# Entry
Amino acid sequence: NAGVMQNPRHLVRRRGQEARLRCSPMKGHSHVYWYRQLPEEGLKFMVYLQKENIIDESGMPKERFSAEFPKEGPSILRIQQVVRGDSAAYFCASSPDAGYEQYFGPGTRLTVT
Amino acid sequence: SQQGEEDPQALSIQEGENATMNCSYKTSINNLQWYRQNSGRGLVHLILIRSNEREKHSGRLRVTLDTSKKSSSLLITASRAADTASYFCATADFGNEKLTFGTGTRLTIIP
# Structure
């Protein structure tokens, strides 16, 4: 059973470009979470999704950020018009149901130049 | 202090010694989870303890939870060089699946 997969592992974007981060949950997991980690800090929750539904987006910035988890395919975190402050590691986690362990992927390290 | 605040921020011990890290939180939680993160890598899930549990073991790991004091501890016995990493506690409130992480304890095991 493959773990949570994220791609790309490293992404470099110029200011103003779009960044698309992908997450494939573990097999059998229908709950996906996105977190952001700034250097030397802990992880901060961004959004919680189930298939085709956003359950909790209380940690998402109001502008430029969006997330989806379609019926088929990976979950996508999209950042439009990136700025230098968006540079961080973005982690995806999945769980089989609410209240269970969340298993994390290796992360995508976004660098905005 | 922040939700899920770890103490100490950094800890260096000799290989073979035991390492203890503490975590304090503020809210009424459903469960508390401990994770390990090696430098520049993803998080590895170590153990989950629910609010109605007081102690859990997994190999060389022992986790305690005191809901009256809103605190948890992670004990790693007989430490190894490979245990060098940052350790985070994360809490999940009732009816809320998002995890709130602390800033972590950076553990260094000296061979």
In short: Chain A has a mean pLDDT of 93.
